[in-house]
Amino acid sequence: MDGYGDSTRTVNAVGAHAVPGEPVAPVPFPASAYHLSPDEAEPMDTYGRASNPTWRQLESALAELEGAASALAFGSGMGAISAALRVLAKPGTTLVVPADGYYQVRRYAAEYLKPLGVTVVEAAAAQMCEAAGHADVVLAETPVNPTLDVVDLHRLATICRSRRSTLIVDNTAATPLGLQPLSLGADLVVASATKSLAGHSDLLAGYVAGSHPGLMAAIERDRLLAGPVLGVFEAWLVLRSLGSAGLRIDRQCRNAHAVALMLRDHPAVRSVRYPGLPQDPSHAVAVEQMRRFGGLVSVELADAGAVHRLVERSALLVAATSFGGIHTCVDRRARWGDPVPDGFARISLGIEDTDDIVADIERALT
Ligand SMILES: *Cc1c(COP(=O)(O)O)cnc(C)c1O
């Protein structure tokens, strides 16, 4: 689908192959076991944890969107990330993980990989390139969740290539519609599809995408043996959701931009981060590498009480962790131990009408 816009690509990724008499929409195939051919060498689906036709539809759609040769579906983002790390971060290697990114990735590295003999280095987005100079495997997240600093992926990939180290990029926040890490030199994309791709706050899913056949085969083997698999119905729902991902993500980005502009000038706001704001410290890098600036805005209010009052006074905001759904959600990140001030909140913009959500937040802040 080269040369087409993102909504055209997401719609067409969802199985619109014209076969007369076949359904237009994707179809789930719920099955754990498959009829076996007497020709034992014939490639086929045998057992649901190894491969199945519903995953294949989803995986080819995700690979297409990420510009990857292949993709692997997982039961959650953490399922995908931990599988990639188990394969790449072997005992004796040095792994860099984001100090300011998704906190459970840090916990996995510290609690599971470190005792196995992996040297785990935590680096904030701004220190990623420096830390990569001493690493075998680098996991970068951009924009980093929740502070929304943007990592210069082209520069980071150049450093990793010169050291022959492996660069993994967590593309959850930007989505493949906002950022194509593989085209900027990353070796592997990992992501939670729970967020904007599935987009309805009703399921968990994750994926790995890449173009190194040996690496993808090793991760597939890990999925088979460790078993963090995605259910068939969830795979089908992600696939179904991908059809509207272009529309939803466009609206989320537009709402985020409008809310960020309003917050920037609001007296109750100490600071706001959005890579799309020209005065944002990450704006220059974001313009270079991102196609959309995303649906997340980070804001600092006076204290924890101010964040709770914002939600109470609002008619539209939902207090919830996670992001990328159709509702606008607010999450006070210090609640989860993120290294941010008490009044720091991540706002995940939904798909409400832009004027409504801007007016609602503006009113609730005063
Ligand atoms: C949510 C999230 C994850 C984990 O995904 P799950 O689907 O919840 O397992 C990983 N990375 C980032 C950046 C996330 O936001």
What's this, in brief?
It is an enzyme of class 4 (lyase). The protein has about 375 residues and is of the alpha/beta class.
Largest sheet: 7 strands, mixed
Named CATH architecture of the largest domain: 3-Layer(aba) Sandwich
Find the structural class using helix and strand composition: alpha/beta
Query: How many structural domains?
Result: 2
Question: Terminal Cα separation, in Å?
Answer: 47 Å
Beta strand % = 5-15%
Q: Note the total helix count.
A: 12
**CATH class annotation of the largest domain:** Alpha Beta
Contiguous runs where pLDDT drops below 50 for at least 5 residues: none
Which distinct ligands sit in these coordinates?
pyridoxal-5'-phosphate
Describe, in plain words, how this protein is organized in 3D:
By secondary structure, the chain is of the alpha/beta class. The protein has two domains: 6-242, Type I PLP-dependent aspartate aminotransferase-like (Major domain) (Aspartate Aminotransferase, domain 2, 3-Layer(aba) Sandwich); 245-365, Aspartate Aminotransferase, domain 1, CATH 3.90.1150.10. Helices cover 37% and strands 15% of the residues. It contains twelve helices and twelve strands. It has helices at residues 6-13, 53-66, 77-88, 103-113, 128-132, 153-163, 213-226, 232-242, 245-264, 283-289, 304-313, 354-365; strands at 70-74, 94-98, 119-123, 137-141, 166-170, 188-192, 206-210, 271-273, 296-300, 318-319, 329-332, 344-348. The strands form two sheets. A seven-stranded mixed β-sheet has the order 1-7-6-5-4-2-3, sandwiched between helices. A five-stranded mixed β-sheet has the order 8-9-12-11-10, with helices on one face. Helix 6 links the parallel strand 4 and strand 5. The longest helix is centred in the last third of the chain and has 20 residues, at 245-264. The relative contact order is 0.14. Bound molecules: pyridoxal-5'-phosphate. Pyridoxal-5'-phosphate (PLP) binds next to helix 3. InterPro entries: Cys/Met-Metab_PyrdxlP-dep_enz (IPR000277), PyrdxlP-dep_Trfase (IPR015424), PyrdxlP-dep_Trfase_major (IPR015421), PyrdxlP-dep_Trfase_small (IPR015422). One of its GO terms (biological process) is methionine biosynthetic process. One of its GO terms (molecular function) is cystathionine gamma-lyase activity.
